[in-house]
Specification:
With 95 residues, this protein is mostly helical. Helices cover 45% and strands 6% of the residues. It contains four helices and two strands. The protein has a two-stranded antiparallel sheet. Strand 1 and strand 2 form a beta hairpin.
Length: 95
């Protein structure tokens, strides 16, 4: 096998395998397909309360994916996963 063909097949295999990996949040492994929903939900939790109430999903069907029940996630879970920034109590923006 030619060297370029070998490298191309390795690169292709690595590129296809990476999206299939699950990520973890709140102690739950979330599939790559469902991670987008987790990111959106965490962004909703990060918004100021009045806007978040208007935009947050209202039914259990909207809060459930094949790998995680989004309603079990907290702002702290999202912050620990690095999806949102949560201010540290006592710190100001100037610190």
């Amino acid at each position: 096998m030619k060297r370029t063909a070998l490298f191309a097949s390795i690169a292709l295999t690595a590129g296809l395998a990476a999206p299939a990996m699950a990520q973890e949040i709140g102690g739950v492994a979330v599939s790559a397909e469902d991670w987008v929903y987790v990111e959106d939900y965490c962004e909703t939790l990060a918004e100021p309360l009045p806007e978040a109430v208007d935009e947050s999903p209202s039914s259990a069907e909207e809060l459930s994916t094949s790998s995680i029940d989004l309603s079990t996630l907290t702002r702290d879970d999202c912050a620990e996963a690095g999806l949102i920034d949560v201010p540290i109590p006592g710190e100001t923006a100037d610190d």
